[in-house]
Amino acid sequence: MRSLADTIQRLSQFRLDPLGDEDDETRLSPFLFPGRNPGQLKAWTYVPDIVRRPPLVVVLHGCKQTAARYDRGAGWSQLADQAGFALLFPEQQRQNNPSRCFNWFMEADATRGAGEVASIREMIEEMIRTQDIDPRRIYVTGLSAGGAIASALLAAYPELFAGGAIIAGLPSGVASTIPQAFDRMRGHGLPSAPDLQAKLSAASPHHGPWPAVSVWQGTADRTVAESNAMAIVDQWRGVHGLGPQPDRREEGALRTRMVWKDRTGRDAITLHLIEGMEHGTPLDVASGFGEAGPFMLDVGISSTLEIARSFDLVKGPTRRQTTRDTSERATKTEAPVLSRVQRTIESALRSAGLLR
Residues with catalytic annotation? Predict the structure, then answer.
């Protein structure tokens, strides 16, 4: 076991956030869904008006965050307004994890048919049913513990997803206890590439096709070691039939980008190493999407926009939010409190079979 003092110090990084959770301003609507909900998660959604058969992005927050805070920081709902896709935000509850981390390191929460990943699958199925989501265009992304549970989701239910983006996360199936989780976060004890690939193959009965995966990692991240990013790449190379060397490598002042292409020429795996970035989601606030804050890092790269492009959700240039846009958006979110309530009531009625 690693140094006890080091483990205690890392645990202190995930102490309770002194700010309240329930007062977060949000553009999201609460999502009531039927089912067992074995992971006992909450959920929020954002569905732009007048969107037919929309794609869906599942967005998973990190530790000490809420769905509302992560959306405000990353700017996903702002981009959804412009590009016309729906959003699902599963949210951890303190009763499950005092620091609001998704329990990616617990087999009971990260295994197909069980716990938190099963709850998120139920949410997705209800979104398909009630919001007419295109089942061929479902994607997942997450930060840190949210990135690690996104890894678990992609491994447990690869048939559900067309693609995924893991930010400062870990491979699937590498830990089953809290001490192991902290060791893996440090980069200690990560399995070999063949073992990682075997874990992915054993996580579901699926035999393909497989989702495309992108991995985002800061080179100065002291919470999740950079070696985890390469381990995620190694885990997914096997099912895609790819070798250890990328087909393309691009080096710039802000990042190094490596791409592995599958037999069809598709970008099957993409690795983004952000130079000098610490632990968090990379943002470009000047793009008009998101705002800087804890674990939301303005480094001049909008991962939200680039991830959406990799999911083929954004075509052409996006409009930067102007002062007028912000004013209109504020008016929209103040007046449509009734609209959000109406959507919540309609979702509950659909769940009860009283409304189609």
Answer: 144
